[in-house]
Amino acid sequence: xxxxxxxxxxxxxxxxxxxxxxxHEQAQEFLARSYRTGKSHHAILIEGPEGIGKxxxxxxxxxxxxxxxxxxxxxxxxxxxxxTTPISRQILSGASHNLLHLTRPVxxxxxxxxxxxxxxEVRRAGHFFSQTSGTGNRRIxxxxxxxxxxxxxxxAILKILEEPPRGxxxxxxxxxxxxxxPTIRSRCQTLKLSPLGDAELKQALSMxxxxxxxxxxxxxxxxxxxxxxxxxxxxxxxxxxxxxxxFDEVVRSEGxxxxxxxxxxxxxxxxxDSEVIFTFFLEHLTEYLAEQARTAALDGQLPLAEKRARMxxxxxxxxxxxxxxxxxxxxxxxxxxEAARAA
Length: 343
Fold this sequence. Notes:
By secondary structure, the chain is of the alpha/beta class. The chain has two domains: 15-192, Rossmann fold (3-Layer(aba) Sandwich), CATH 3.40.50.300; 238-342. The protein is built from 14 helices and five strands. α4 links the parallel β2 (99-102) and β3 (139-143). The relative contact order is 0.11. The mean pLDDT is 93.
């Protein structure tokens, strides 16, 4: 992870600093048209899989709005941000009086990123809106992602969305909108983004200096990345391909071989600074169980399908309890892997 931004993947560009956006042309056209006609909703829910450009689009649109305070005079298309302008420099440095980025904060005691966006962060939004804008521009809050809001924070955001301050605009990002409070979703205008195509994904990786040189590895990465730059970076730079292969070995092995494979994988996932790959593994495990449940349902084995589907929430509960009570991470992982094998 980046030392400057502990949530930024190695090899990635911070969305606020990214001047290029691949794909999502229709979404950009919609945002520009809505703004120019003065019909922009005060809260836009930008949803889609992680790592496809939602945050980059949000900062790009925010730059466009703040650079063009008169909607009717704004360009027909959202241009690439000019990093040399005062507005761009302020956004990049986090010093803009008209843009607030809400994301999971860093714990001052541990130096690690907290597991949720807290109500204290949302209170920053209240203070932000209470300040007088020196320019008279819109005041924009990017919630990145809203999936990370804890219950108190979500309720606090909801109160602001219900009675938004004058000139307020919320760009609410979500990887899994089904996890959001229905009342938050109902206060937003939804803008759905699709995963990148293979050509766009290869171009995005090339722009980041991550080159795919053809062959089986390229095909594997493009297939498993599912149109997500973030997922591709995890596969290429964080050992994601090895983790998936190790999990396959756990599932396929029997007897003592399976036990050894489980311990090897648990050792890697519970190691120091393993948060990124640990999260990647949980996502892969969830996809695996969902596919297993789907297969069972198609075969008419409904009780088995229900059991496998239920395991997803049970694993989430185990992780939550393990984190809350600081339980042995390896033992928790071994329990999860045993359950996955039994599925």
